[in-house]
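Figure 6 in text form: structure in, sequence out.
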């Protein structure tokens, strides 16, 4: 059994990004910049934003967090996004979710310029993903694919993959990425009948359903690869995933832990998307145009 160390893979990615940024700045180019917009005081969101700030600083990427009050109106937030879209010093825009109930999440995400949408949630980027024209790929699915590549799963021809969960953030986009690597993909969810038997047929199981320790050893076939996207608390308040790690670990070929698996990869892919957006933006300026 191999533990897929997302923390180490993410560090390798960040080391590479840091080198690229140093090379750009040594050529006299500006520093890439990520702007995070945080509305309200959600404790989990505050933690996520701090982690993103630290990650940017560690690789030499400029970062700014715009903190807005809980009562900020949708119109005020849209005005801010318009300003960030027009700011040529901003390469990536991330609006931290969830937003307060009075703000329409989809309208806000749709307002971000698709070239600066480093979360990969804009309909333009999701549409490109669907037809195989990958630009800004959603960060968690992109990180999962990088984890699979780390264990030699670059081409998934002949592999059966089951994605447990159908969210727009993880389930649906990871299914498209797996298809692009020639896997045969099934998406299972809360309404799926005989879900345990479906998982038992999978060579790769991606657990992204948000239920603590849902997936047990009897769901997994011998020698499968399991990627656990879940972030939950068990009955003792300890951080755990959607997979019962202790129950499953001796049966699998490889498994990602929680914590230390997908989480670090998500932030690393966010940074990678931001640097990619920066490179495309600078290339556009060189060609006498802008990407806005």
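Output sequence:
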């Amino acid at each position: 059994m191999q533990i897929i160390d997302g923390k180490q893979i993410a560090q390798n990615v960040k080391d590479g990004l840091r080198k690229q940024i140093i090379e750009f700045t040594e050529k006299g180019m500006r520093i890439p910049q990520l702007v995070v917009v945080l509305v309200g005081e959600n404790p989990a969101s505050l933690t996520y934003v701090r982690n993103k700030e630290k990650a940017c600083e560690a690789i030499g990427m400029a970062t700014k967090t715009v903190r807005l009050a809980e009562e900020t109106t949708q119109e005020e937030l849209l005005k801010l996004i318009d300003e960030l879209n027009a700011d040529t010093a901003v390469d990536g825009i991330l609006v931290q979710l969830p937003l307060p109930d009075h703000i329409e999440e989809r309208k806000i995400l749709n307002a971000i310029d698709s070239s600066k949408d480093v979360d990969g949630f804009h309909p333009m980027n999701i549409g490109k993903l669907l037809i195989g024209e990958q630009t800004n790929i959603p960060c968690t699915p992109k990180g999962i694919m990088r984890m699979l590549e780390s264990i030699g799963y670059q081409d998934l021809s002949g592999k059966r993959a089951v994605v447990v969960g159908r969210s727009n953030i993880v389930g649906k986009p990871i299914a498209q990425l797996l298809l692009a690597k020639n896997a045969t993909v099934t998406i299972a969810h809360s309404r799926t009948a005989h879900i345990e038997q479906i998982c038992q047929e999978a060579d790769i199981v991606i657990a992204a359903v948000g239920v603590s320790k849902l997936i047990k050893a009897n769901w997994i076939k011998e020698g499968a690869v399991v990627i656990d996207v879940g972030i939950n608390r068990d009955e003792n308040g300890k951080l755990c995933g959607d997979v019962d790690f202790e129950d499953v670990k001796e049966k699998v070929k490889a498994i990602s832990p929680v914590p230390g698996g997908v989480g670090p990869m998500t932030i690393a892919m966010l940074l990678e998307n931001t640097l990619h957006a920066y490179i495309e933006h600078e290339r556009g300026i060189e060609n006498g145009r802008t990407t806005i």
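Caption detail: The chain has a mean pLDDT of 94.
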